[in-house]
Specification:
Blueprint (H helix, E strand, L loop, with lengths): L13 E4 L12 H9 L4 E8 L5 E3 L20 H5 L5 H6 L16 H8 L5 E5 L8 H11 L12 E5 L2 H10 L5 E5 L8 H9 L4 E5 L5 H9 L3 E5 L4 H10 L3 E4 L8
The structure holds SN-glycerol-3-phosphate and calcium ion (CA).
SN-glycerol-3-phosphate binds next to loops.
Length: 263
């Protein structure tokens, strides 16, 4: 991971490690993040949720069922309950070609543990996940980033990016910090004649949009560029698709497969 921040460099095509190096290691574990750093991704993408006892943990699904040996809803479990789970063995069983002994017994990391490990040596692309079910998640996140000096003015712009599907969540982050870059995730991006209007709304609070590459076209990127908005596309796992969107002018991709996209 390069320490200089490249977020707002419009000529740079960012490689964002989606859930870590999640093709080769169990997603959202320290193993997956370490590998993403080794592979020199520009950002570590971290989905964040809050445990019942108010701790920010890194996990995509709202339940632990798919990616651990347990079951239950993350926001209804305490940190000790979450920490008892094995978040790596499922991967070895599901992807025997990628299996490694060290993945057995991987834990769901807290955001603090991730920051303790990597500090300022990486860039973080943090998603507030389901903020409507995690009341106060932005408050906790802001406090944690501040305590860890990750919002310092001396850091390059974009050391930490906050992304969310929730406009409300992004706007709440903005009330705490006036400069942190925000990226609006769009599940159903508005294309065609209404695209510009939608992008103008987004550009009032965010520096960019994260969306599905399958749902947009060249024109979408062009319009975003005219408005000075970044577009980061998910989830791009092949070199061919990465090259195509790079040539069109997208500003980066979320990928599970850092080495596979030609990085
Ligand atoms: O955050 C970008 C992309 O990861 C959004 O989708 O569901 O994988 O978090 P999801
Ligand atoms: Ca995400």
């Amino acid at each position: 991971i390069k320490n200089e921040t490249t977020l707002m460099n419009l000529n740079k095509f960012l490689i964002i490690a989606h859930r870590g190096a999640s093709v080769q290691a169990p997603e959202h574990t320290m193993a997956a993040y370490r590998l993403a750093k080794e592979q020199e991704a520009d950002y570590l993408e971290v989905d964040v949720q809050m445990s019942k006892d108010g701790v920010l943990v890194s996990l995509h699904d709202l339940t632990v069922d798919r990616t651990t040996d347990g079951s239950g809803i993350v926001s209804e479990m305490t940190l000790p309950e979450i920490k008892r789970l094995d978040a790596g063995s499922w991967f070895n069983q599901k992807f025997p070609d990628m299996a490694k002994e060290e993945y057995v017994g991987q834990k769901i990391p807290t955001l603090q543990e991730i920051i303790d490990e990597f500090g300022e040596t990486v860039n973080y692309y943090i998603e507030t996940k389901k903020p409507e079910q995690n009341e106060g998640i932005e408050d906790e996140l802001f406090e944690l980033l501040e305590q860890n000096n990750l919002l310092d003015e001396r850091l390059p712009e974009g050391k930490v990016v906050i992304q969310s599907f929730s406009e409300e969540s992004l706007k709440r982050m903005r009330t705490f910090d006036s400069t942190i870059p925000l990226v609006k995730l769009e599940r159903d991006p508005v294309t065609g004649p209404d695209a510009r209007k939608r992008m103008q709304e987004i550009s009032e609070y965010a520096v960019g949009i994260g969306t599905y590459f399958e749902k947009i076209d060249e024109e979408y990127i062009k319009t975003a560029k005219e408005l000075g908005l970044l577009v980061h596309l998910y989830t791009v796992n092949s070199a061919e698709i990465a090259e195509k969107w790079k040539a069109i002018g997208a500003h980066g991709i979320f990928t599970d497969n850092i080495t596979g996209v030609g990085h």
